[in-house]
């Protein structure tokens, strides 16, 4: 009898612990709500990355938006990064050219976080392939540069015959880093990658070529043929570079060039297999003028097609992710447009593009539509989602959106953005079509 009572007591205790353990587990899932997708490279190395990727482009930028600069502190940056990790984000997007030396700040935070949280795996995504900024360097980079770029610089009076000096180049004037021979690309990208490894204090897990081969003058592309995809892939697959990253990908590459890279990798085992593509994608489409030189976007119809760029994971970026034109006092769109117009008039090189790229009549119609839709959706479902959550959910709900690079700069914005994952599951194909097309 006593043995039965003891067994019964043990069973009750076991059941109690089991139920409570599952309750705690459920709370963790509910609190984080994160989703993960596995990626695999040509070496069969596999990692499960969070669907939301923490972008750091504007995290250390004091004048990102609004008339008043915000005060940036290392403590504030670390608070946002800590919260991202707590919410289950395990991939952090950065670059050596991002504002405020953020790649180095991220590396410092990661070093500290890993010491405080041994065993928790966090990964980094950085970028190379940025063209040389001739506005700052005032001269062409050493080595071979495109004949077309040089002739255009001469024609515009920016470069004298026989000289590499460029004393009068405007903002948005760039020379490709991916132009020329395999050896030249190796040297140019290796230098860039060296800065990233020093900043991050380790090799990046994911390495994207953030531009394809191309030159620009005053943000306008120089018309010329591009370097072959094969030459670029040969360089990135060389021992000097390949051993310094795990996964390769493209950012702002056109679909036909991505398709070519996949075909080459499938035929030649010596080539690194690209696994990521990061284009611009948002309910607020770019006009013919991109938000930055060389920006490439995908469309609503592209992303609804399950066969679009099949064989590669698509991780879009957009002007949203918590902080955006939507974080403004009412009237939101009007205030954002006025601020962008003011910055454009002041000659700000970033807003010079964004003003004409984003503030279009079509995007204003979509903004007004998503405001109405969000209100009706909340009334129907007894929810309280915000418009920026709806626009992020719109991007996440598309058939071909595997990941989404987000850009919150506060903890509150970050939490709102993560909550978009749940909202995305509630949106139908008809909802997405309506938000994009309206009642056509």
Overview of this protein structure:
There is one protein chain. By secondary structure, this protein is α/β, with parallel strands linked by helices. It contains 17 helices and 14 strands. 45% of the residues lie in helices and 11% in strands. Strand 3 (52-55), helix 2 and strand 4 (91-93) form a beta-alpha-beta unit. It is globular and about 70 Å long. It starts with a helix and ends with a helix.
Strand-helix topology:
Layout lengths: L1 H31 L3 E5 L5 E5 L1 E4 L18 H13 L4 E3 L8 H15 L6 E6 L3 E2 H4 L9 H9 L18 E2 L6 H19 L5 E4 L6 E2 L2 E2 L7 H8 L2 H4 L4 E5 L3 H13 L6 E5 L21 H5 L8 E2 L17 H14 L3 H10 L2 H21 L5 H10 L7 E3 L4 H8 L1 H5 L4 H9 L3
Parallel strand pairs: 3-4, 3-14, 4-5, 5-8, 8-11, 11-12, 12-13
Antiparallel strand pairs: 1-2, 6-7, 9-10
Helix pairs in contact: 2-3, 3-6, 6-7, 11-12
In short:
By secondary structure, the chain is α/β, with parallel strands linked by helices. The protein has helices spanning 2-32, 74-86, 102-116, 134-137, 147-155, 182-200, 229-236, 239-242, 255-267, 300-304, 332-345, 349-358, 361-381, 387-396, 411-418, 420-424, 429-437; strands spanning 36-40, 46-50, 52-55, 91-93, 123-128, 132-133, 174-175, 206-209, 216-217, 220-221, 247-251, 274-278, 313-314, 404-406.
Spell out the key features of this protein.
single chain, 440 residues, alpha/beta, eight-stranded parallel β-sheet, two-stranded antiparallel sheet, 17 helices, 14 strands, 45% helix, globular, disordered N terminus
